[in-house]
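May I ask for a sample protein chain and its fold as tokens?
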Amino acid sequence: MEVAKEFKDYNRIKVVLAEKRRTNKWLAGVLDKDPATVSKWCTNNSQPSVELLYKIAEALDTDVKDLLRSNKSNE
């Protein structure tokens, strides 16, 4: 029996890129990263380091906390 791999949405990079009307390719260029790497961040298949999160936030002119999903539910 195959166990499905569970992916969690830890970051909101894709959402913030859309809000700022920027693309994965643009972010990859700004950070000098492979576009495939940025794509993996946007799909939450992998996560950037904390240092890179700060660089992403700077590039997108947003607070780093806006790039992360809260671990608290709004009950």
